[in-house]
Amino acid sequence: MSKKSIQTSALPEEDIIELIRQNDNFAFDLLYEKYWNRLLHFAFRYVKDSYACQEIVQELFVQLHTSGPRLKINSSLSAYLFVAIRNRVYNYLRNTALYKKHITLAGKKLMPSHNNVEQAINFMDVQNKINDTVCHMPEKYRTVYLLHDQNHFTVKKISEVLNRPVNTVEKQLRKAMYILRDRLVMHEMTI
Question: How many domains does the structure of the chain reveal?
């Protein structure tokens, strides 16, 4: 400790505050030596992360050092420092909680992608059930259904291709849809 800092340690708090306002490095060093550990332990009671506590206390000292002439302390220096650390701890805890909340929300937003996988699996399951049902349909219904579904033929076009009456094609397509719907409803009941 230098001669000037020893002299500064005997000063009342009001004088130390005034010297800090005048950017007196020795007064600042004294303040740092006197309060660093006490503020660190105070912060650690709430934030159980020593690195975060060091950051919180360090930020306060940096702010005190840079604010210099603008520093306004209306209470005792000790009370000011502990209230300032308490507020910084609250801000840290709030920001940490907010961060965790955002992480949780982001995780929940990712959940639909898991649901998309589940939906894709369900879609493939339904598609397999449709294919199985179509394969087991009578030939006349299967042919009409496949021309309509896969080739997007109209009833009239199917009637021309198969050389069947339009009414017959309509009935066969309705019957194919009925078989398919009935089988899918049965499938839904088993899920």
Answer: 2
Domain carrying residue 144: 113-190
DSSP string covering 111-176: HHHHHHHHHHHHHHHHHHHHHHHHHTS-HHHHHHHHHHHTS---HHHHHHHHT--HHHHHHHHHHH
- Tokens, residue 35: 């309060």
Residues 6+ apart with CB under 8 A from 146: 134
pLDDT, tens digit, 9 for 90 and up, residues 24-80: 888 888 888 889 999 999 999 988 888 889 999 999 988 888 887 777 887 788 888
Q: Taking the CB of residue 59, how many other CB atoms lie within 10 A of it?
A: 15
The residue type found at 114 is H
Domain containing residue 50: CATH number: 1.10.1740.10
